[in-house]
Design brief:
By secondary structure, the chain is α+β, with helices and mostly antiparallel strands. It has a single domain, classed as Arc Repressor Mutant, subunit A (Orthogonal Bundle), CATH 1.10.10.10. A three-stranded antiparallel beta sheet has the order 1-3-2. The longest helix has 25 residues. The chain is globular, with a radius of gyration of 17 Å.
Length: 113
C-alpha cells in the first residue's frame, strides 16, 4: 500500500493522538507503530514526527517528560492530555464524516471524461 504525501500529512495529527491514547510513547516507537499499522505504507522520519509532536505540545494537546530507556539512557516520552483526547475525538468524527461522504459517492454514478 502506497499512501500519498498529502494523505500522510493530513492524517499525522489524528494518528499521533490515537497512538498516544493507548499510552505514553517516544518518537522512535511512534514511527515504528505507524509503519506497523500501515503495513509499511507510511514511512515516517524523525524530521516529520518531531515538528508534529512539538506543535501538539505547544497547543497543549500532549506533554513531554524525560524517562529512562531500558539501556539506562534518557528518552523523551509524550503523553496525551485531556485536551488532546478531546481533539482526537473531534478528529475521529471528522474522518468518519469524510468516510461516510466517500461511501455515498462510491454508490453514485461515475462520470467519464
Amino acid at each position: 500500500m502506497t499512501i500519498s504525501k498529502d494523505l500522510i500529512a493530513a492524517s499525522a495529527t489524528p494518528l499521533v493522538l490515537s497512538i498516544l491514547s493507548h499510552g505514553d510513547s517516544y518518537g522512535y516507537d511512534i514511527i515504528q507503530r505507524v509503519g506497523e499499522l500501515s503495513d509499511g505504507g507510511m514511512k515516517w522520519a524523525d524530521g516529520m514526527l518531531y515538528p508534529i509532536l512539538h506543535r501538539l505540545e505547544k497547543k497543549g494537546l500532549v506533554e513531554s517528560y524525560w524517562g529512562a530507556a531500558d539501556n539506562g539512557r534518557k528518552r523523551k516520552y509524550y503523553r496525551l492530555r485531556k485536551s488532546g483526547l478531546k481533539e482526537l475525538n473531534e478528529q475521529r468524527k471528522n474522518w468518519h464524516d469524510l468516510y461516510a461522504m466517500l461511501q455515498k459517492l462510491e454508490g453514485g454514478s461515475v462520470c467519464s471524461i
